């Protein structure tokens, strides 16, 4: 199954995607994670993406589609994928369609996670993560240990540079302008399911799973 998780930054796409991977066995394809690794590794893609990411702007479509094209060639994607943070523009949505077609596959669902803006700003300002293993933390709901080291791997716990309030507001504006129109696109194709994501991760996961399971029964 190929599923897109759509939603504003901080709507919980990454959290839900990780749980879906465990339950259904599809790989998570997070363009944000791929780009952050490219920035850390200092690759040409990372160097190009860095300035856009720092400002909370979108990385150009051709760069993103190149990244997805390479990722879809990997064997684990043969069973499908959970797309987290991709597509974010109509051009990316068209690109995804033709890339999937090329490998004899197609999109099954677009699940849009809906959270009010003020909740998103609170969630993202409190978000922290391990710089080594990626373990998620949150200063309100899941604070890291006092020594600032990850419980899993002792790595350093950090705040993303784009999780500062100014950048968060810009990312939200970018989402509304460039990404939210994808709802209409996928709704028109009969692929959209909207999930109220203003709740606990467990409750949201139950709702997302029922959308996937209902689709699977069709
Ligand atoms: P995320 O981790 O999904 O919030 O993404 C972090 C940043 O990476 C975004 O603010 C963008 O600068 C960039 N990015 C991630 N995915 C995409 C995408 N599909 N299209 C363009 N830029 C992206």
UniProtKB/TrEMBL annotation:
Residues 30-59 are annotated as: NMP. Its main location: cytoplasm. CDD domains: ADK. GO terms for cellular component: cytoplasm. It is an enzyme of class 2 (transferase). Catalyzes the reversible transfer of the terminal phosphate group between ATP and AMP. Plays an important role in cellular energy homeostasis and in adenine nucleotide metabolism. Keywords: ATP-binding, Cytoplasm, Kinase, Metal-binding, Nucleotide biosynthesis, Nucleotide-binding, Transferase, Zinc. AMP binds at residues 31, 36, 57-59, 85-88, 92, 160, 171. It catalyses: AMP + ATP = 2 ADP. It holds the Pfam family ADK_lid. This is Adenylate kinase. It is found in: Cytoplasm. Residues 126-163 are annotated as: LID. It comes from candidate division LCP-89 bacterium B3_LCP. One of its GO terms (molecular function) is ATP binding. Its EC number is 2.7.4.3. Zn(2+) binds at residues 130, 133, 150, 153. The keyword Cytoplasm applies. Belongs to the adenylate kinase family. Residues 127-162 form the Adenylate kinase active site lid domain. It comes from the Bacteria. Consists of three domains, a large central CORE domain and two small peripheral domains, NMPbind and LID, which undergo movements during catalysis. The LID domain closes over the site of phosphoryl transfer upon ATP binding. Assembling and dissambling the active center during each catalytic cycle provides an effective means to prevent ATP hydrolysis. Some bacteria have evolved a zinc-coordinating structure that stabilizes the LID domain. Monomer.
């Amino acid at each position: 199954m190929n599923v897109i998780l759509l939603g504003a930054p901080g709507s919980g796409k990454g959290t839900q995607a990780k749980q879906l991977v465990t339950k259904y066995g599809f790989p998570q394809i997070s363009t944000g994670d791929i780009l952050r690794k490219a920035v850390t590794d200092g690759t040409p893609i990372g160097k190009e993406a860095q300035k856009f990411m720092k400002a909370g702007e979108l990385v150009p479509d051709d760069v993103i589609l190149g990244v997805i094209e390479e990722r879809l060639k990997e064997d684990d994607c043969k069973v499908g994928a959970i797309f987290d943070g991709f597509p974010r523009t109509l051009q990316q949505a068209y690109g995804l369609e033709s890339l999937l077609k090329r490998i004899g596959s197609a999109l099954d669902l677009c699940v849009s996670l809906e959270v009010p803006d003020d909740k998103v700003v609170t969630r993202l300002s409190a978000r922290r993560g391990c710089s080594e293993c990626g373990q998620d933390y949150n200063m309100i709901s899941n604070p890291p240990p006092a020594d600032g080291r990850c419980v899993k791997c002792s790595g350093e716990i950090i705040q993303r540079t784009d999780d500062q309030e100014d950048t968060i507001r810009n990312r939200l504006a970018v989402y509304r302008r460039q990404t939210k129109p994808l709802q209409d696109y996928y709704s028109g194709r009969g692929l959209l399911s909207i999930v109220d994501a203003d709740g606990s991760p467990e409750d949201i996961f139950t709702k997302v799973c029922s959308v996937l399971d209902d689709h699977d029964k069709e």
